[in-house]
Each structure stands twice: as structure tokens, then as C-alpha cells.
């Protein structure tokens, strides 16, 4: 059943008197509890689409609904957790205090949030390999560790939809690979609806139920590929022919876009 519905959405930006068409006629229907990646050339509107779904940007044409609500209504009901490129942690707070932050904000800002069943933040930190760093200050953590706190915090926030905008882009390859498996684990045990922007074909195939390939600007949907790899997924899956076939299929669509842009 469709949960997030993006219907014929178009978006323009005005800059220095020029209109830029960022998105054209985007149509997507995403089911609850699925992991969906957005991949496409730089500037094709992936972040803009994420922001529109999250109620942080308006559409110029079309409509977005989340379980029948507008993005702003969904936002006011605390339906979204954001994981940006660099985790917004307070350096002088401990890891645990940073984990508690959205809960503190929610309780002050919205009494309905009090009803959200809270997950044990320490367990969440353990699931991303940070069980020994609960009382460390955020400033004492590496970039990769900070990003893992951001991911654990998003999964513990009570929000059913997580919007992740290239959360691993600032990390080295080895850290990135390790974190992608931790994200896979934590997602498979929570099954929140995730919209994940990435430039990595490997991450898109490893993590996703669905990969949305976008065309060069103006961003359109070039292809939607269902990733039929079995779950739970483990590291060995990357060595399978099926995995490589999905990567090749997506690369093929992206090459078509490079040629036409
Ligand atoms: N606030 C803004 N004002 C003007 N133009 C904008 C604004 N935000 C985005 N754009 C333009 O919209 C287009 C899409 O940008 P967006 O950041 O969504 O792309 P992206 O696919 O996420 O890019 P990247 O992969 O490089 O991060 C770009 O041409 C960008 O310059």
C-alpha cells in the first residue's frame, strides 16, 4: 500500500533573475517500511526531492502526501527524522545526551511525543558498535563514530520516516563500508521507511528495496528498480552475481544520463 506519494511534482528555483527547473513531473509511490535510495547525477534534485517530502521546501506543481497528510502536517506530527551529511551533535554533550536531544525537544514542543514508546538509547548505540562510548563527549569521536550516533539517534527518535541525505559522503571508504552494514542491521531490525540519497551504487543495492534513478537536471525519474536480494543481507551478498547485475543495471541507466546531459 502506498505510504509516501509524490504526484507529478515539479520545482523551479529562482536565482539571480534566472529560473532553474530542478524537478520535472516526479511521480513515486513508496510503501511503508521500505528502504528507498535516490541516485543520480550531481544537481539532479535528489536533496530537493528529499526536502520536499520532509516539508522543508514547497512544490511548484503537483502534490506530496504521507499517509494522506501533507508534508507540513506530517512534520508537525513528528513523522520525520533527518540524517544530514554531517551529524548535528553538540560537541560538549556526551553521546547519550546527544541521543536524548530529539526526545527532550519533542517533549517540550509536542505533548503527543510523550506517548512515543522510547527505545533504549544504549541498546541503539550498541547496535552501531558504540556501546563503549555512551559517556564520551561527542567532540571525542571520529567523524564516522559521530555519524553512527546520528543514525542511532534517528532510529530512536520515534519518527517513522527517516530522510538521509548522503550521510556517508564525508567518510573514508573503509569506514563507509562498515557503517553501511551497521545501517543495514539497524534498519532490518526496525523497518522504518527510509529515503536515502547516495552517489554509491554499492550502497544503493546493498541497502535498498527500491532504487530510484534520476535523470540529469531537470530531475526526472529515469528508472525505478526493485532490488529483489533476500533479507537479512550480509556481507557475502556483495559477492553474488545478482548483486553485480543490479549494480550494472543502475550503472547502465546512469551512463545513459551522462550521455544525454
Ligand atoms: N535554494 C536553492 N536556490 C537556488 N537553486 C537551488 C537551491 N537548491 C537547489 N538548487 C538547484 O536545484 C538543482 C538541484 O539541486 P539539489 O541540491 O537538489 O541536487 P542534488 O541532486 O542533491 O545534487 P548533489 O548530488 O550535487 O548533492 C541544482 O541545480 C541546484 O543548483
From TrEMBL:
Keywords: ATP-binding, Nucleotide-binding, Transport. It comes from the Bacteria. One of its GO terms (molecular function) is ATP hydrolysis activity. CDD domains: ABC_NrtD_SsuB_transporters. Signal peptide: none annotated. The keyword Transport applies. Residues 4-241 form the ABC transporter domain. This is ABC transporter ATP-binding protein.
Amino acid at each position: 500500500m502506498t505510504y509516501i506519494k509524490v504526484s507529478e511534482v515539479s520545482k523551479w528555483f529562482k536565482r539571480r533573475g534566472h529560473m532553474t527547473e530542478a524537478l520535472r513531473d516526479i511521480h513515486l509511490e513508496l510503501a511503508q517500511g521500505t528502504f528507498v535510495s535516490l541516485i543520480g547525477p550531481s544537481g539532479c534534485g535528489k536533496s530537493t526531492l528529499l526536502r520536499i517530502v520532509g516539508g522543508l521546501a514547497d512544490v511548484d506543481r503537483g502534490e506530496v502526501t504521507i499517509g494522506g497528510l501533507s508534508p507540513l502536517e506530517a512534520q508537525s506530527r513528528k513523522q520525520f527524522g533527518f540524517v544530514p551529511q554531517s551529524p548535528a551533535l553538540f560537541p560538549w554533550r556526551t553521546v547519550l545526551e546527544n541521543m536524548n536531544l530529539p526526545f527532550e525537544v519533542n517533549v517540550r514542543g509536542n505533548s503527543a511525543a510523550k506517548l512515543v514508546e522510547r527505545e533504549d538509547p544504549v541498546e541503539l548505540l550498541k547496535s552501531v558498535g558504540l556501546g563503549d562510548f555512551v559517556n564520551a563527549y561527542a567532540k571525542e569521536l571520529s567523524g564516522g563514530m559521530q555519524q553512527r550516533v546520528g543514525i542511532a539517534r534517528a532510529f530512536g527518535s520515534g519518527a517513522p520516516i527517516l530522510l538521509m541525505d548522503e550521510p556517508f559522503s564525508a567518510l573514508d571508504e573503509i569506514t563507509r563500508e562498515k557503517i553501511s552494514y551497521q545501517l543495514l542491521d539497524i534498519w532490518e531490525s526496525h523497518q522504518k521507511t527510509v529515503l536515502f540519497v547516495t552517489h554509491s551504487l554499492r550502497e544503493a543495492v546493498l541497502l535498498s528495496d527500491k532504487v530510484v534513478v534520476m535523470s540529469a537536471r531537470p530531475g526526472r525519474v529515469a528508472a525505478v528498480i526493485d532490488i529483489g536480494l533476500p533479507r537479512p543481507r550480509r556481507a557475502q551478498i556483495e559477492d553474488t552475481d545478482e548483486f553485480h547485475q543490479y549494480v550494472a543495471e543502475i550503472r547502465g541507466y546512469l551512463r545513459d544520463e551522462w550521455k544525454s546531459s
